[in-house]
């Protein structure tokens, strides 16, 4: 049942993003920023964590989950280190995910032949 919930919630988030792409003139980069900022704001309002507890990976894997992760990291670092935590918290909280994306992207580029679009 957890897999089904994650699939449906994650799919709903992706469908809403696709509607934004199709129905507005927003560029994909701006929509990505909206998702990250939206996740951070919902995390600050303490609304995202209950949603994530319900949806599991369906809410933690999309970019809204990344925004929430950044918010949690900044909040913890500010509580522990004060003002400097504003700058350190997001990096500490997201370092593993960003590193994994870079490493797996590099490995994929070694396995496959990247080609430029014509």
TrEMBL record:
Transmembrane intervals: 6-24, 31-48, 83-108
User: What InterPro entries does this protein's entry cite?
Assistant: Spore_V_AE, SpoVA
Q: Which organism is it from?
A: Clostridium scindens (strain ATCC 35704 / DSM 5676 / VPI 13733 / 19)
Recorded superkingdom: Bacteria
Among NCBIfam families, the record links this protein to:
spore_V_AE
- According to UniProt, the name of this protein is Stage V sporulation protein AE
Its ancestry begins with: Bacteria, Bacillati, Bacillota, Clostridia, Lachnospirales
Q: Which UniProt keywords apply?
A: Membrane, Transmembrane, Transmembrane helix
Report any Pfam family annotated for this entry. Answer: SpoVAC_SpoVAEB
């Amino acid at each position: 049942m957890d897999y089904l919930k994650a699939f449906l919630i994650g799919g709903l988030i992706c469908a809403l993003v696709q509607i934004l792409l199709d129905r507005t003139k927003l560029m994909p980069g701006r929509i990505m920023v909206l998702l990250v900022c939206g996740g951070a704001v919902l995390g600050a309002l303490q609304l995202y964590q209950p949603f994530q507890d319900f949806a599991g990976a369906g809410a933690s894997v999309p970019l809204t989950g990344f925004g929430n992760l950044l918010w949690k990291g900044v909040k913890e670092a500010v509580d522990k280190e004060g003002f400097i935590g504003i700058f350190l918290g997001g990096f500490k909280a997201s370092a593993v995910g960003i590193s994994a994306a870079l490493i797996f992207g590099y490995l994929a580029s070694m396995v496959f032949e990247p080609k430029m679009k014509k």
